Automatic annotation (TrEMBL):
It comes from Exophiala viscosa. Residues 1-20 form the signal peptide. It is an enzyme of class 3 (hydrolase). Its EC number is 3.1.4.46. Keywords: Glycerol metabolism, Hydrolase, Signal. One of its GO terms (molecular function) is glycerophosphodiester phosphodiesterase activity. It holds the Pfam family GDPD. It catalyses: a sn-glycero-3-phosphodiester + H2O = an alcohol + sn-glycerol 3-phosphate + H(+). This is glycerophosphodiester phosphodiesterase. Belongs to the glycerophosphoryl diester phosphodiesterase family.
Amino acid sequence: MRTTISTIALTALLVELAVAAPTYSGHTDRIPYTAKDDYYISLGPRPYYIIQNMTDGPLKQKLESCENGPFGITTWSIGHRGGGTLMIPEESVESTMAGARMGAGILECDTALTSDLGLVCRHSICDLHTTTDILLRPELAAKCHTPFSPANATHAATALCCTTDITKDEFMSLCSKMDGSNSSATTPAAYQHGVPFFRTELYDTCAQPMSLDSYIDLVDSLPGYRNFTPELKTPPSQVPMPFKGYTQAQYARDFMQTFINHGIDPSRVWPQSFTPADVYLWLNEYPAFGKQAVFLDEDGDDPANWTTAVNRLPALKASGVNIISPPINYLLAVAADNKTIVPSDYAITAKNAGLDIIAWSFERSGPLTRVKADDDYYYTSIADAVHYDGQLYEVLDIMGRDIGIKGMFADWSATVTYYANCMDLKGPGNN
């Protein structure tokens, strides 16, 4: 039943996306052409909606000039949690296939650990209660780190279920769902809802989860020679390492060895981690992979650490790190007029240090009309200067051409694919 339902949902999405879809026409970054001639890159209406919403000017005119393509697969467009996450459950087969259909040349699997030391795709080790139907499976819900507790007059509904609570096979039996929960729920069934208003439950029909092995096989099988960006998830406090004697270092080795076992060329892999020790282990023990290792940086979230985070960038480059990956808000600032968006001191310092930059995450937020009122994380540094959705491409253009980032993670890959094709931007590894 899973396959039938998921296939129907994905087919419906692809029909929606295939609006005047041009024939696949090659890669903007010259990666080897292996796609079938009848494989379509389908961008759907969203890029055109954003362009229509833009203020008239040279950037809008340039983007309008590309409205009929041709559009190709580009590694500048990176499928965040698969690339279809705005509408399809994250880290699933369906999201990955949607991101691929929208032209993402690199596709992500956040890699978590199970109780039997299996490696699976899940954005957080302890998010199963909001991203899967585990609470509807009594035999698995009983294993959760914190069982479901219904809301009452004084407390919100709670639960905490981790990949380490169950085996790899048990994980693979789950249905992935849109990330969300209902804090007012009094039953596990009611707790399944609560998706942010700007996403949808239209395709929330038992999406298929992935293991690291099945993700590699899927991405390797997709037309267009797609590449990989797996992230090794840092275990939270609820899962102290070593876990059953299993160390963080062995976790990082097994993660990399999986790609070796599948015969994947290191040039196709951009491994990520927020933990510096993981990156340095890959640099030292797997140098062919390590040279493309991506250090995910969120150390500047605390304003007290901002200057330190900026000043250490040259030292990271000197230590062997080649790629830094911060959130969008680290790279952008507002000029003295409180209206003009400009590159931040972080972006300038990183470029001057010789670091390549891959940013995250585009299309993760709701309408730009609400980002200031909602204190949206990704726009905190420029909230005073963004007011309407047409500015999405203005923001992307500052990062793409003014700063020169090498790629952008996106929850809806079509938006970034359109821009990268129109501007002929080269993805990571294509200098």
